[in-house]
Amino acid sequence: MARDPVPTSRTRAVDAFLETVATTPMRGGGGGGGRLIFAMDATASREPTWDRACGIQGQMFEEAAAVGDLWLQLCYYRGYRECRASRWYNRADDVVRAMSAVRCAGGLTQIRRVLDHALKETGRESVNALVFVGDCVEENVDELCDCAARLGIKGVPAFMFHEGHDPIAARCFGEIARLSGGASCRFDSGSARELRELLSAVAVYAVGGRPALARYGDGAGDLVRQLTHQVGRAD
């Protein structure tokens, strides 16, 4: 039986994402703990991905725990100008419980408010990374890029995960990642495992930086082993 062709464009995107993560300098050293803002679009179209992300949180914490403490803050927007952020958690079950209580609601994107929030948080105490998961952009792209550049100045890389094929979102997410010093990567409904591995890799990076990623790659899947190779070349 013939095998399905490898999706070359996705492979290139994943490789580029992993290479950027591997070469991203981490603010504040690493090895003892890390602070990660996990932000998601919770508008109506995002409900299936939201449910999958609840399960992914557990693995993110498990992998990061081998390196040090991961402190994670959940941030989301939905409905009419509702944008909320949780307290900081360092237990996976607390995050899953908080996420499970949220119901998605229709509305426009509010990515600007997420980026502004990350800037405020890192003004209080260093944030090692921002992760955002979404599928579209319905805002002024120039304003989003301005916020992203300010995150870059503060040393907070944004790792942007784009579900679907919207070309405007793809370009905008890529610019936000570039200007902040992070990376962007596309996924779809059939790549839950890929998303899980990549998010776990970012969590490990947030806690321990590039050396932690190198150690993590020894027992991880193919995607993270690719990341480990990139770490070795970067160092």
Structure, described:
The protein has 235 residues and is of the alpha/beta class. The protein has one domain: von Willebrand factor, type A domain (Rossmann fold), CATH 3.40.50. Helices cover 52% and strands 19% of the residues. Helix 2 (47-65) packs antiparallel against helix 3 (92-100), helix 2 (47-65) runs parallel beside helix 7 and helix 4 (111-124) runs parallel beside helix 5. Residues 1-10, 28-32 and 226-235 have low confidence and may be disordered.
Task: Record keyword descriptors for this entry.
Rossmann fold, globular, 235 residues, 52% helix, six-stranded mixed β-sheet, disordered C terminus, 6 strands, alpha/beta
* pLDDT averaged residue by residue: 80
- Read across the widest sheet, the strand sequence of neighbours is 3-2-1-4-5-6
How many structural domains are formed by the residues?
A: 1
Helix content: 40-55%
CATH superfamily: von Willebrand factor, type A domain
Q: Determine the structural class based on helices, strands and strand pairing.
A: alpha/beta
Percent of sequence in beta strands: 15-25%
**Spatial extent as radius of gyration:** 16 Å
Beta-strand segment tally: 6
Cα shape: globular
What is the top-level CATH class?
Alpha Beta
Q: Looking at CATH, which topology would you report?
A: Rossmann fold
End-to-end gap: 42 Å
**What CATH architecture would you give?**
3-Layer(aba) Sandwich
